[in-house]
Hints:
- With 422 residues, the chain is an alpha+beta fold.
- It contains ten helices and four strands, in the order ααααββααααββαα.
- The model is unreliable at 1-26 and 414-422 (pLDDT under 50).
Amino acid sequence: MRISKAGASIACLLCGLAGIRVAAADTGLTLAQAIDHALTRNPELRASAFRQTKAQAGMAQAQLRPAPELALELENFAGSGDTHDTNSLESTLSFTQILELGDKRSARVELAAIEIDLAAFEQRARELDILAEVTRRFLAAASAAERLGLAKESQTLAQETLDAVTRRVAAARSPLADESRARIAATSARLDVQQAESMWRTRRYALAASWGETEPQFTTVRADLFSFEADPGFPVLMARIARNPAFLRFANEIRLRDAQLRLAQIQNRPDLALTLGIRYLHQSGDAALVAGFAMPLNSRKRSDISQGALRAELAQAQAEQEAASVLARTTLFGLYEEMSSARRRAEALRAEALPLARTALEQTQAGYDRGRFAFSELAAARQELLTLHSAAIESATSCHELRTEIQRLTGEPLTPIEANQP
């Protein structure tokens, strides 16, 4: 598949889309690689690219002048009386050329050029939508991988707790019921790992399907969910929103309707059809020139009806652009606020709450070993750590997903692409 410059630039933009830094020590799939696969292999992008080809063909058609006509007319034969044979035959060979008035060809070419631009913007918008979906699936896979690691950590903690409880029960320092509860927790942790592995496989296959792959060729993804880039600020994002391909498409849609209206106004002027030919009189053997011209009648009324419809379409496109602009700005504000909140929550959980929870678990474990805490307190400390870690993963994933939506809405990267290179 041939990728346009616009498609390549969108690929570069989306590499910085989620603000994820990759871990250089790993060898898994990166976001940049996933985007490259989608650009080159996604069947929807290949199908939508044909509209641009159609628009180019429309330009070639618009540049053509009206084709001349060659006509042969036979008269006065196969009739009755003197015209029963070909003795009275008259044959006329004529050449007709339509002369377009009002510079209609230039208006058609202008309209075709706008349709080419419109097709290009629609292709870019489609690329942006599909690649944003690839990024969302990449984030889902990265989140599933992080949760799988958490589930394995939980299983390790549950096994360590079970070992500690078993030792205390064997030493008659804890009741047998504590061992039963610890074994239940260990079994639950093992089942959680199996569920997390199933989710990881599902997300991995969903990501590979973005470029038409039925069997994923990667086994891991390279991403750090807890790496966040600098916030450009809401005013900067608001200024970028007008450059989104979807909004540029609205502008081109208005240009298209305006060009169609101008063409309809120009077509209000009728064309002339000039005819020049030669007539041969078979009976006398003489020849003579014939000439004429033709012009359509009552064309103004038809043109006025067409112009009225085009004016309505132009007004509709302008109203839709205004409504979409208001909605987009409102949506952007909501997304930005949610993204900022999710980032603050993720950073606070990871930098403050999680270290405290780990310390509390270590202290509770040490106190339990010395008989100062009950098993229920140890289990609560362990569960608190796991709950906070899960909440941190959820907040970080949510932050990146919201950044993805903002990127799709603004059509530009939130941070320089160099900041996200491995």
